[in-house]
Amino acid sequence: xxxxxxxxxxxxxxxxxxxxxxxxxxxxxxxxxxxxxxxxxxxxxxxxxxxxxxxxxxxxxxxxxxxxxxxxxxxxxxxxxxxxxxxxxxxxxxxxxxxxxxxxxxxxxxxxxxxxxxxxxxxxxxxxxxxxxxxxxxxxxxxxxxxxxxxxxxxxxxxxxxxxxxxxxxxxxxxxxxxxxxxxxxxxxxxxxxxxxxxxxxxxxxxxxxxxxxxxxxxxxxxxxxxxxxxxxxxxxxxxxxxxxxxxxxxxxxxxxxxxxxxxxxxxxxxxxxxxxxxxxxxxxxxxxxxxxxxxxxxxxxxxxxxxxxxxxxxxxxxxxxxxxxxxxxxxxxxxxxxxxxxxxxxxxxxxxxxxxxxxxxxxxxxxxxxxxxxxxxxxxxxxxxxxxxxxxxxxxxxxxxxxxxxxxxxxxxxxxxxxxxxxxxxxxxxxxxxxxxxxxxxxxxxxxxxxxxxxxxxx
Length: 460
Description:
The chain is α/β, with parallel strands linked by helices. The chain has helices spanning 24-33, 45-52, 68-75, 90-100, 112-115, 118-124, 138-152, 185-191, 212-215, 239-242, 261-271, 292-300, 307-317, 323-336, 350-361, 405-422, 436-450, and strands at residues 14-18, 37-42, 58-62, 80-83, 103-106, 127-129, 156-168, 196-200, 203-207, 217-218, 228-232, 250-258, 370-381, 387-397, 429-431, 455-458. The protein has a 7-stranded parallel beta sheet, sandwiched between helices. A 7-stranded mixed beta sheet has the order 10-11-12-7-13-14-16. A two-stranded antiparallel sheet has the order 8-9. Strand 2, helix 2 and strand 3 (58-62) form a beta-alpha-beta unit. Helix 3 (68-75) packs across helix 4 (90-100). The two termini are 45 Å apart. The relative contact order is 0.15. Residues 1-7 have low confidence and may be disordered.
């Protein structure tokens, strides 16, 4: 067992791990195996105790990060604070770390709120390492690798595509969306409303959130056993500068889903189920909640709650490509229960009420695996004028008796980054894996010690 010495107390290094999500356990276990002393902090003590059970060197506490005094007291006891809580709270943790001169690691994108603290971070002489999970994280490590190799040889990256999907394994995907929730259904559905910006053929393109599913299309990965569709995700334009590829005419980062997902989501959107407007008939205080068919009829303004009238109302709001697609989507809505007499779980808005049912019906069951599929595609123009298409691909399944693929591929890179911050390998200031100096040691350790690797192939 490797032990890191020289902490503030003169014994083993100490870390504060903030969070209770599914990615916490792989990070916690890795750091425990390295001989660190870990304080796991959650809002509720019970959640922290559950995570710490049977983990050597781990102790649980209850902590509210919005309590500045309490946060400072705990941050001041450690060498690194790991923030695996929602990203909106990261600045609170970083401000505390600045006051206490303690390093920070997160798996989240570097936000404008963090950039505002960059001067204070530098003056405090600390490291704040972000974007070191899966996406963002592993994706950066292999994008920078190939881009750097091509540039060193005098070549150019003319096109860069990067798509990632966290999905149920094919054998666990038998539901209308081909999707299961290991996190908030609300978060996934709301992400579909974000405008996408990217470069395509030298032009800046923008797709409003409501139109995202309309631009989705089949995406050939070379792995012909998968029927994926892809759509752009958020703002890809900053990556021309971050990846230092000013020569690239096309830069698109996006999401992978199984075929059929976009059409189903488009119908749900057109029906009004992504509305965040509170409705009186969806008040959580209702002692006698309405049935799903009555709720669906009200949201659609259908003439009655009969399946026939609801179907007519859906057809008036949504255009199906053909009869087969209509039958498939209606069967999916029926499977969810939207035409049934089952009572809803009212949560004020159509979106949140739908999410309550999706999270029950589309949760991972015991013994089911998840799948992570991440692929970069580079169109390369070599110094001699020859063109090459190269891919870097990560395809990993979860272990039903251990970690999910998503938890492992977010949690392990985070843990490795914590160790490298403690060892002084990643430099000071507000940093993220966008340079070979940061990426190379992280990528090599993940491959050599944990078997986390992206397979590179020339495909054309």
